[in-house]
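Sample intake sheet
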Amino acid sequence: MKIGIMGGTFDPIHNGHLHLAQTALTQFDLDQIWFMPNGMPPHKKQSSIESDIHERIAMAQIAIKANKQFYLQEYEANREKISYSYKTMEHFRKMYPCDEFYFIIGADSLFSIETWKHPERLFKACIILAACRDEAATKESLNGQIQMLKGKYGAHIKFLAMPLEHVSSHEIRKLIESGEPVSEYIPAEVEAYIRKEGLYGSGNRKN
């Protein structure tokens, strides 16, 4: 099978994540997308993550349940240590040697990926799908970096045309906190869960 890995804090998961996953599924003829909530991501401070891992898992599960090709992957969420992408992808390669893995990242991450832990091992373990807007100027600006990574590491990197989204998880949290409507940005059932649990200042959080 061809499996796309979409990691993130998903704090909260939103329509942009779902649209991007569907685009990857279609554009590269993938069989599945695994949504992988990060438990302890190395690139983010824990203090910047506002909901706990169980809440983020619940929101992701709610958001993807209607799509039979979307799956929740809890490998990193269940780890008590910082999860590095290269180790995660090597684990999947070992567990599922007959499958081909596609690791979805933002195109801007290509410019910092050499600062990640063992990027050379990550490149060997998967194909990178770099999500960027499908514009000639954007692709041109990234092509040099891609060619450098290919030459230096033998990296296999492909462009993933990214749907134009106007809001991030951070902005959604701010909107919820200020009482602004967010129904156009997140699935209705995810919003209902957020309101029920009082996340992001939407009400009285349960103890």
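Comment: Residues 50 and 94 are 33 Å apart (CA to CA). The first helix runs from residue 15 to 27.
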